[in-house]
Amino acid sequence: MKDYKNSVFHGIRGLEVLKESQSNPEYISNTLHTLGVSYFFTKQYDISEAYFLEACELSLKSGYKEGLIDCNKGLYDIQKEKRNFEKALHFYQEYIRYRDSVFNIQTFQKINKIESEKLVSKKNQEIANLSIDRVNSENELKKSYNKYGIVLLVCIVTLFLGIVFYALRNRAIIAENKEKILQSKLHALRSQMNPHFIFNTLNSVQNFILKSEKFEAYNYLNRFSELIRLILNNSKHSFTELNKEILLIRMYVDLEQLRFRNKIKYIEDINFDVDNDNTQVSAMILQPIIENAIIHGLMGRKEGGFIKLTIRKQNNMVKCIIEDNGIGRENSVIKTQEKVNKHLSMSGMNTKLRIEMLQKNGHPDSFFNIEDLYDSAKKPSGTKVTVLLPIMTSQ
Predict the structure, then answer these.
(1) What is the pLDDT of residues 20-37, one digit of tens each?
(2) CA 261 and chain centroid, separation
(3) Which domain holds residue 28?
């Protein structure tokens, strides 16, 4: 492009890098030659001559004859421009000498190559003349190979199509499972924030206000907002720390105790390191069970009752048992008829669906069961729900 100023700038930078990295002498010689040419065309002959001389010295040490040819040609051009014809003649003679030397070597190599090719061609012809039968046999063998090759190609194509089909099928199954997990999350969130719970909470706040119990109303509303915030945070993830799940249950039970004037007795029997942040379980799977036990079991008793949460570690699983001494499922259905029955079915189906998704996604030991309890007179005395959840260790 005849932009010699930029050529010099980049040439000097390149030369520094090449020397620092102790690169191939041929690369350094070529860069020195390029700098000499750039300075030559800017008529800075002394600087150009210095670069050509350095390139000649490096090419001579490394035996790089092409570099010697180019550099002596450059020195010849400089001396001619400076009208120093005696030196110009000297460098021109050196240029011719190195050029002829390389030319002679190349010519010798070409002659040798031609003679070798002629000799190889002659030998090949002799081998071809003496091996006609062998060539025919090889052709027959090649035909057999071609047949086997076609069969092998068909097998490979079939196998490839099978793998592609299997991969596409798996992708469809994975997409379907993801969709089910998403739906399960939405159901879980909706079950936590059901309209009945919110309506009852607002009624309780209204009741406190009407009775001029301002502090109770403020306390109740404050705890309710904290619970809602925790529920929303836990609903964002499929898994959460076990201690957060237990905290959510405690906050919910505290709220219900305020609403029902401490008719509910809550008992915890936890033999597990719940404060370990690396221990995670399925999020928001226990609270709906606790809610059902309180609303549809204990609230049917005039004197209230208790609800007990037991947590144990079982192999690499968390075993959770929720037990209450409520009126039982049968009496709850009879008392509230179809409305409660539908509510219980929604909660049970939601929990069952989430357990099934865990089983399909690599946790076959996950478990969910509801058991009716009876006293010695065979009368309903509560319910017992057992849930077995996998422990997910966060990295």
Answers:
(1) 888 888 888 889 889 889
(2) 51
(3) 4-121
